[in-house]
## 1
Amino acid sequence: MVPHLVTALTGPINELEQRVLDSMPAIERWFRLEWMEHTPPFYTSVDIRNAGFKLAPVDTNLYPGGWNNLTPEMLPLAVQSAMAAIEKICPEAKNLLVIPENTRSTFYLANLVQLQRIFHMAGLNVRIGSIDPEIKAPVTIDLPGGSQVTLEPIVRTKRRLGLKDFDPCTILLNNDLSAGIPGILEEIHEQYLLPPLHASWSVRRKSKHFKSYEEVSKRFGKMLGIDPWLIHPLFNMCGEVDFTARAGMECLTTNVDALLTRVRKKYKEYGINEKPFVVVKADNGTSGMGIMTVRDAREIAGLSDAAARRMAESKAGQPVSEVIIQEGVLTNERINDAVAEPVVYMMDRYVVGGFYRVHAERGIDENLNAPGSSFAPLAFAESTRLPQPGMKPGASAPNRFYMYGVIGRLAMLAASYELEATDPEAEVYD
Amino acid sequence: MVPHLVTALTGPINELEQRVLDSMPAIERWFRLEWMEHTPPFYTSVDIRNAGFKLAPVDTNLYPGGWNNLTPEMLPLAVQSAMAAIEKICPEAKNLLVIPENTRSTFYLANLVQLQRIFHMAGLNVRIGSIDPEIKAPVTIDLPGGSQVTLEPIVRTKRRLGLKDFDPCTILLNNDLSAGIPGILEEIHEQYLLPPLHASWSVRRKSKHFKSYEEVSKRFGKMLGIDPWLIHPLFNMCGEVDFTARAGMECLTTNVDALLTRVRKKYKEYGINEKPFVVVKADNGTSGMGIMTVRDAREIAGLSDAAARRMAESKAGQPVSEVIIQEGVLTNERINDAVAEPVVYMMDRYVVGGFYRVHAERGIDENLNAPGSSFAPLAFAESTRLPQPGMKPGASAPNRFYMYGVIGRLAMLAASYELEATDPEAEVYD
């Protein structure tokens, strides 16, 4: 089950959505059984695009920021989920250390305040230990709205990580380590460091995630009796691309063309009158950098120097070499005429809420995670809008957000598969 | 953590409440460790009275009705908790059978609709199987508000309980079996029957519950450094009372007097200028029947015939013989001038919501669970009212409902101890 939130898209529920809504008990049971075999990531956010004819995750974040964008009504769900997560990992825990991104953005710091609040209410003393070398002593920062956050320098001893006079049982990373794993975080064996370091963008690859998601969507599609393409974005990849030197452009052109052809075939099969497009992304990228939309393979050869430069570096200055070419999924959602995409937030195995990422200056086929985007919180739906067994027709309206919660959890399950497959400490039984 | 709900009592937070609020992480950790050792009841509701100087549970219901009185905002929490409960018991479950009370009260039936909705959203096919001998074929009843509920006759085979063409993994009792355990529910070994039969009022005794609660409140009081009396109602009991024949009245008089003396001493210790009172209840009773308020032991001898008759029978016509004499706890809560007491709802180990039981015609020292009572749902508190670490003084107001959630969970933990102690199938390691 997911919280019932009002979604922006008010058009009629389509066949796929109806199938998902009708299959709720079977879907929930399917997840229940999956979580018996697989461990959910500690927390996850998933960007989703709903094209009307298909619905798919486009990005799965294992170090979600933006918790401050959830409405207050979602807080108890987040806390309850945090309690469930902590119980499993370290029930005797008193102290939790959060390691944030190295930024002073007040939006990001408001996210930290919210995370601190969630875990405090779940029964932990929470302090924030920065790995930013500029934080040499505790710094307290006032935030808009009257709250405060204190960043403290992290203290590493031979065996443990903590703060001065603060020894945590669990360390929660809220930093995706795009710039690489700092030595201070390595060789921690006595404490729980979550998510594990191989979930960071210094190790993770989008293509591995979507390979896992492909597997998950096939199994889910089989259970539900639907074509997995309806929930899965097709993809290809190129391993050696250098946008500055224009190396690997043939690989890119060939793969973009091949993917566009596959998508075109699918559109024909379903009678969809839209122009297919693909999105080229850094395979190790995040935060919306190093991303471009391509509608024709010939655009690759004609790429401007400025566009090539933008693609050449992703977050934290990491050079792009491996790229993923992903089927573009249109977003049909609008808030006040601005293009929007839902973002679903999960803690442990539970959906705790969501919001819309809105961008007034971007198109329905463009990435919205870019400067100028804003966030529209999702409200809880009125009780009369909840789907309800035994209700008279018309007395209950379907809830589109349920479906977003299902897709979000499928992507989270894929991340669980992905982390199992890439775990450097996994035991191999060959 | 408990949902932050607005409480009716707006007076200043007293010392006890402040201590509880300040100790949130320690309290949550304490519960976390308790639940590692003890299994929470499947679902629980607890009536709480807040006298200002003390705060205590007065009734712990292991077959809670009234789920329909929770606001829609609490539904996701209830569903998430139901998911956690089901995962532990029978993760592969597809079907859940609910056994209701034998009543056609539309209020009660609305409760069934809500329970059905909660477990449906948690991923189960839910049907309602009545043990009422009058239900011989499926009956669909229209409820105010447009919803419907279908009651079906229960079908017992040699080994299993179900409906025609419906074989559940888990059977959820929502009937407290005050009238005794029917044979049809006995000898079920292949399916989960929850709560277990020894949680029903045909076996349960209030005195055993409050004995367990005394133990829990002592341990909790020690952890928090408070006098357990501040959260615990004192009690005595009489084993052989026959109100019709006026037998056992001396025992009652003596114990009422002794208890009033103990309470008076406590009031003196704390400088409380209230008149102590005790409540005499059927030890196996429920639903507010067989209850009287006594302010002076001499009232027992002078009991009118009508009052004696009312005491002589509790719910479902069970004769009262054992009685519990419990310290009365005033309620200081008011909604529109009517006396009110908070009722806290829990599923598995989680507080999912609450409401006020309100009675315009009852006093602050009287039982409110009586004809004429109504229910006032509790709203979620505004985010600015949440207690928050790192907030500037004045920017955050304390939340009284947190404390009610703590007391509710202490009573639930006591019920867990009680059920362990009374389990007929428990293994004894002597």
## 2
Amino acid sequence: MHRTHTCGELTIKDLGVEVTLSGWVAKSRDLGGMTFIDLRDRYGITQLVFNMDDNEQLCAEGRKLGREFVIKITGKVIERSSKNLKIPTGEIEIKVSKLEILNAAKTVPFLIEDETDGGDDLRMKYRYLDLRRAIVRKNMELRHKMAHETRNYLSNHKFIEVETPVLIKSTPEGARDFVVPSRMNPGEFYALPQSPQTFKQLLMVSGFDRYFQIVKCFRDEDLRADRQPEFTQIDCEMSFVEQEDILNMFEGLFKHLFKSIKGIDIAEVPRMTYADAMKYYGSDKPDIRFDMKFVELNDIVKGKDFKVFDDAELVVGICAKGCAPYTRKQVDELTDFVKKPQIGATGLVYCRYNEDGTIKSSVDKFYLEEELQKWVNAFGAEKGDLILILAGKTDKTRKALNELRLEMGNRLGFRNKDTFAPLWVLDFPLLEFDEESGRWHAMHHPFTSPKPEDIALLETDPGAVRANAYDMVLNGTEIGGGSIRIHNKELQSLMFKHLGFSTEEAHKQFGFLMDAFEFGAPPHGGIAFGFDRLCSLFAGLDTIRDVIAFPKNNSGRDVMIDSPSTIALEQLDELKIKTTV
Amino acid sequence: MHRTHTCGELTIKDLGVEVTLSGWVAKSRDLGGMTFIDLRDRYGITQLVFNMDDNEQLCAEGRKLGREFVIKITGKVIERSSKNLKIPTGEIEIKVSKLEILNAAKTVPFLIEDETDGGDDLRMKYRYLDLRRAIVRKNMELRHKMAHETRNYLSNHKFIEVETPVLIKSTPEGARDFVVPSRMNPGEFYALPQSPQTFKQLLMVSGFDRYFQIVKCFRDEDLRADRQPEFTQIDCEMSFVEQEDILNMFEGLFKHLFKSIKGIDIAEVPRMTYADAMKYYGSDKPDIRFDMKFVELNDIVKGKDFKVFDDAELVVGICAKGCAPYTRKQVDELTDFVKKPQIGATGLVYCRYNEDGTIKSSVDKFYLEEELQKWVNAFGAEKGDLILILAGKTDKTRKALNELRLEMGNRLGFRNKDTFAPLWVLDFPLLEFDEESGRWHAMHHPFTSPKPEDIALLETDPGAVRANAYDMVLNGTEIGGGSIRIHNKELQSLMFKHLGFSTEEAHKQFGFLMDAFEFGAPPHGGIAFGFDRLCSLFAGLDTIRDVIAFPKNNSGRDVMIDSPSTIALEQLDELKIKTTV
């Protein structure tokens, strides 16, 4: 037997018990005639002690153990003289009477500790050692719990998990599909799914009523923005539902996850329209951990000969609580920040509402203090606050102010990773105009239903048509989204017409789903959550890579196994393909 | 709102309640001035009633509803005059006051009923309609429950589910790998995993201690034998364990599944060595729902001038209880059966132990009744039994007798799908000789550990070396298998030597796993279950296709979505590949 206990469970209650433990040598130190070893496994660390006076040979063997050696020991649980109350096993140690080396270890390339000396590249190459660090392993444990509790909640709500195929069909627009040559069908290819969208809708046609799947999806695209070529979704679909049913069901999932994983009671998730999100936060995924809403100033700033404001489509600002004392340098930093090319503002106007009641702005030459008082009123600013204003084209200015707002949130410590502020964003536009093709595109996908009251606008003002589409946002990150689908044939045809598809094109691209819809499709809708992202937010991490056991790098490479790689010519021949590099 | 209740929940307790239901029109019949409709959803069937006298227009609309129309109705729960006590909702019906057609349906290509008129091909083409049949959907519900209970059990036993990558690396021996060209790394390919074997072993090196995953695996091979190019495994690995720990843990999983899914208490799973399985059942996966063990007769049949037996390496038989009255024709059928080319016996000797105490055999000319009495004694046969004997080369004869035994099991009704007889088969040979390459091959894989007491035999009698390898067998089907792995470098080198690998070859093929083993690998072992097969056995089905929502056919094609398919030239160009068909 390799162990009677794990390294995480022995406490003062076990004094005197003879135990066998197995694990890794985490640390070792000699102190006078004694040698102390931290023995580590997944469950914790237990201190071992060897004593020269008791057993010289054994102690000598103990001294020779290297870091990360795998050993098995037998010994008695005794009370420690110097206790470590930070860990559950910290009051005891094991007086070793028997030692067996199960496996030796070469010197590891970096420290197996929470604070390691290994750089990113090295840790990825030796990911199996990186995963040995408690801080990394805990992320995987969290991920496991998240998946398990998601399944519990959904199963308890009558959802069935159905595995949809991984080897599917490439669609004409599947530019980002990974494809897989078929040996049995030479010249033909499968594709890996970017999502199980079609299959989950088919399952609704099948009457499955409530479907979910925690499922790998694949996208062959640029990976700059913390993306992975393979990623995991919580994919869900329900029949005979309206938007409200979906929002309630998945708000419930969310509350369950917060409660069961983090012990946090989440209040009702607030809801915001897409239009309001853009107007008040300049983003379709507002971080509402803090307020600092946009205030539009067109009505009160125009016509005072300040050309920048007079020419602007939108003048809009935020109020930074308590920042009036910002130094010139600090304000300049903010100006530099908004002028960065990726943010693109041309300048920043500020207005201090000083503690002494005076109001000073960077545009004092155009605005009298009584006019500035109107600004202060518009923001509901208090003494000590700093107002920051941008002006220009509406979309661009909102986007820039969103960045500035987030930056101020960071500076003011409002974006704490232990604070969680979920939000539903509703009523997304159904269509967006694609400048390149000069056509309207479905913002989600062509089966997303428009709001009934907006259908008439399809003819007159397509951009104003709102969809029954919703996103779940957490701390400024989109973590899920979905829609109520069109199940009605006439409406679907109308949609295809407005998307510029002929019946033939529509059928070529969505053929079997459209066929299926002819045989009695129920009203249905669904949602999909980015599981990697959700886990990283729960874990308070910045990148999804940290919640993926074996992630790929920005070039889509797994540097540990050195993949992708060339394959043998015989293999290519058998598949009836050739590379043309 | 689309419904207040599902079609499976209203009973006599709900009399008088006004309800709204949605679902599919399963059946419709007019009876005098009344129209009755079976409304179906996933949860059941509720009868609707329309009455000409009450509301002529509504009833007329009801009469026009076609099969599989999706409708929403409102009405009152009333007591049925003619009750159907076979279903929970059979005592009530809904007197419809409001009807809305949510979606019409074309005529479906086959009946959506348990007994359908649709052939296999048609049902696969319209799989989404096939899945609408309760009998098919129930298989998916079972599969969901099996996965969920598996996860519950393993999570409760400290296993962590870790997602391993789907885009991995093709190995030099990955002849059956599916490969995936990488757009970002032109000329290079990922491979889809045939199993996560390497990754789960790496996770043990990482100290994960107990890993599992319900995971899709992929194999590009001939699909004749009820296989699928993508299939699902319950993949597990544990550290600091011996074989006994693994057997106990997964016997526990098995018991939990039987109890929670089928309400069956499974007794301790019996164990059998591979050697005994071959000797007594002629198979490494004996069906032990019935006894009928092989009895070897060499000692008592030889030397009586019956050349067939005298020349045979092995004379071996089974005793079919109560079959002595078999007619000549029935015995001839059995003879024809064993002579089929795929079974390959040259003939069948029988011996009847008649009810009147006489013994008659097909070889009476060589054996006196007192000699035949010895046969009877060897089998422990009783009056009325029929003994069936084959002779020839040991392996071939055992294999043929295994087939005959299973055939007799079928004829005697011993192979009931509702009876479950699991079995551990232990002590598999470590190596098997490959005639083609003239080399010994690892029967499982090269990391499988030999029994310590057999290691010396590696030099002298490699075929006799037993492995710490085990299979779980259920009703004559292998449903899982695994082994204790080698974690010791010297032993691993010895193994590679005996498998004819140079150090370089071994490193090329298993490089990063061997590297990983140098940094402190714990003793570990694991098992993997074929989840599709397991589900099909639980469901009492003959093929794994029936427990897969969207299976592929024998040519690896999904006929519903028509995949695989050709892809656009531009797509091939971007991937820097060409087809050579």
